[in-house]
Amino acid sequence: MQQETIALHAGYEKDSQGTMAVPIYMSTAYEFRDTEHAANLFALKELGNIYTRLTNPTSAVFEKRFAQVEGGVAAVSTASGASAIFSSIMNLCEAGDNIIVSNALYGGTTTLTDHTIKRIGIEARKFDVTDPTKLEELIDEKTKLILFESLSNPNTVVADFDKIVEVANKYNIITVVDNTVATPILCKPIELGCDLVVHSTSKYTTGQGLALGGIIVEGESCNRKIKGNSKYQHFNEPDPSYHGLVYADLPFPLFSIRMVLCVLRDLGVTASPFNSWLMIQGLETLSLRMEKHSQSALKVAQFLEKHPKVKKVNYPGLESDKNHKRAKKYLQGGFSGLLSFEVETFEEAKKILDSVEIFSIVVNIGDSKAIITHPASTTHQQLSKEELLAAGIGEGLIRLSIGLENSEDLINDLQKALDA
Asked: Which domain holds residue 90?
């Protein structure tokens, strides 16, 4: 089946009521048939629901459906995109390890990798996602993962997948790709050779800014890299917190099963069943929305590129953009609804934000409504001047998340704001 069909049907077998819509199973816990059934579930002799911190029937439909849309073998939903990234790191790393991260990451991810995980003994090393020629120099025996965004927020930098995957496979290291901005409709990291894909489903998946959520999709290649690999010894030796269970011996996707049995069990970063239900609704129309977002964003980018007050436009759909060649290679069907542009000063940027009428000043992306943001003073405000410079975020940078409004209306709104 193709993506559009999968997004509507995968993962759901109608219950006895025959409901067309996936039911919302709002329950914290589940009744066991008897004591033997309960014991078997905890011992993994049988599969089933125990407690919603681990699994939930509504979330399970969302996970199965999203995994198939993304081209993976399994998925685990989480409470937010940030928790999806943090949980991925925690599932693979321990104190003394290091991870290699892109120099073009969302600000919240940068604070997580550069500061928060440092406090628990995990080091983050930076590489240029567009020119990973020096990536090998950063790798040692303690390197556990390579993290990057397929299409970065806010500068829409397109990663050089081929070179990154080549290096990761050479050293048997897991790649983790944040595919939030591109979505599986426009980019398929697993088909491009990557191992794990994470999303903030709060963005394009839900599509209307209704709920927080995240998801981690496991590719088939993950099992091959984990099994028997001394880098991931905790998957290959007895887990004392689970009666000596060896995850590598289980007939399941290894990353996902340990995510549930250890990370969700202990950290509780679990998705709400209601939020999972909202994500299911959004997923059904994702392909249509991404087409519209992309078409309108290209028109807006073309307008901005010609405006005399605009120094630069970052949008890989533009032939003039330095990422255009990679975007044509790795993206399909569009270039997303995210773009950014630069004006001379912070005061000029502030004036534009305060003058728009249709765009809303909001720190979100992927909404059905158009959004405008000043990253240096909001989403990336916590970064130092040096970190902002390294991420290519100047004081005059403005980020746009193009909504589903008429593109001419959005262009007219920006025209008036720029000329005010």
From this structure: 3-281
